[in-house]
TrEMBL record:
Keywords: Cell membrane, Membrane, Transmembrane, Transmembrane helix, Transport
Protein name: C4-dicarboxylate transporter
Pfam family, any one: SLAC1
Matches recorded under CDD domains: TDT_like_1 (cd09319)
Protein's membrane topology: Multi-pass membrane protein
One annotated GO molecular function: sulfite transmembrane transporter activity
Family, as annotated: Belongs to the tellurite-resistance/dicarboxylate transporter (TDT) family.
Parts of the chain that traverse the membrane: 20-41, 47-69, 81-99, 105-129, 141-161, 173-202, 214-236, 248-268, 308-328, 340-361
Species name: Nitrosospira multiformis (strain ATCC 25196 / NCIMB 11849 / C 71)
Coiled-coil portions: none
């Protein structure tokens, strides 16, 4: 076997499930820029995301076919099991893009069904892992990636809400089911984020332990906001639904406030880690000016890894959810935030993509 064949084989065998976060991130940034009115950027990211998704699905299928024991081992490892939910969210995100850009209702519905099946499989795997890990301490079990349980649940409700547009007059129980799934995801978020908060603030937490998945503390609240705002917008304009609409809108606003409050802490932690951890000697100028440049630039201080995409998805989702909330609440002043934050999210997306490409090129570079 040649060196390049060995690299490809090992890449498939050790395929990191967090790579589907790249699909999540690219998809939501695309949808956010479409909502902002930059269709050219949005459609370019949509086409790129289709390539990402099909490529990663092909690798996942190859891993299932040739390295099934390794895949099962990941499913039975709790810290890896959370990450398989990125496939669920990524699939729903691509379904959303197909619905928005191509009005491909049948294909979007098919992806929603695949994501729903994947969600059940992941939740079952996580439940089995939690039973076997019941003797461990909370901080050994719960990480930022744990919040993917809530994100995956809400993503199913989010795409389902948009698919309701394809039904002429959806029966009331369908809206109730979608709303219940969204509310269930909200409850999961409140429970899990409480545990994550305990681990971050009420036990010794080293700066080196800070990682991109902790951004999901904000990202999960953001997708709850987006799904809630879309649910409120799509509810029938009938007196019987007025109480549910008002309750859902207040819950959505609460989720947005919670997500917003997480942002300063997460930005500060990112800056502290990028400017202090792994740097011997003076901090490089590019890192001082823009700490996130370490995701892509520099040979010595580059800090990219696959979970880094977990930072981009929350940033893009916050842009999209704020625009959706402004529409649902009838307060366009909220939309101003998105037009600044959205470009920041796109810049972090570009740097993370550069880090990914450098990592892949470095793997094939001659020694």
């Amino acid at each position: 076997m040649s060196r390049y064949q060995a690299i490809i084989t090992n890449g498939v065998r050790n395929f990191h499930p967090a790579y589907f976060a790249m699909v999540m991130a690219t998809g939501i940034v695309s949808l956010a820029f479409e909502a902002m009115g930059f269709s050219a950027i949005a459609k370019a990211l949509f086409l790129l995301n289709l390539i990402f998704y099909l490529t990663l699905c092909a690798v996942l299928v190859a891993r299932m076919a040739f390295f099934l024991p390794d895949l099962k081992s990941d499913f039975l490892t709790l810290r890896r099991a959370w990450l398989f939910l990125t496939f669920v969210v990524g699939t729903n995100t691509v379904g959303m893009q197909l619905f928005v850009f191509k009005h491909a209702i049948v294909l979007a519905a098919s992806l929603w069904l695949v994501a729903l099946i994947g969600w059940f499989m992941c939740i079952y795997s996580i439940a089995v892992n939690l039973v076997s890990a019941r003797s461990q301490h909370i901080h050994e079990i719960v990480t930022g990636a744990t919040l993917l349980v809530a994100v995956g649940t809400v993503s199913v409700a989010l795409l389902a809400t948009h698919l309701l547009e394809a039904i002429a007059t959806p029966p009331g129980y369908v809206y109730f089911a979608v709303g219940a799934f969204w509310a269930f995801g909200f409850i999961l978020y409140l429970v899990i984020v409480s545990l994550v908060t305990h681990c971050l603030f009420f036990r010794r937490f080293e700066l080196a332990d800070w990682d991109a998945p902790y951004w999901i503390c904000m990202g999960a609240a953001a997708i709850i906001t987006l799904a809630g705002a879309d649910f409120v917008t799509h509810l029938p304009l009938l007196p019987a639904w007025n109480g549910i609409r008002e309750c859902a809108l207040w819950m959505t606003l609460f989720a947005w406030v919670v997500g917003t409050l997480w942002i300063p802490y997460q930005v500060i932690m990112d800056i502290r880690k990028f400017t202090r951890v792994g740097i011997a000697g003076p901090v490089p100028l590019c890192v001082k000016v823009f700490p996130w440049s370490r995701l892509a630039l520099g040979r010595q201080y580059q800090i990219y890894d696959p979970p880094a995409w977990s930072r981009v998805f929350p940033m893009g989702m916050y842009t999209a959810c704020t625009l959706a909330l402004a529409k649902a609440a009838g307060d366009e002043s909220l939309a101003v935030i998105s037009y600044y934050w959205g470009w920041f999210a796109l810049l972090i997306w570009a740097l993370t993509l550069m880090g990914t490409l450098r990592s892949l090129i470095g793997a094939f570079a001659p020694e």
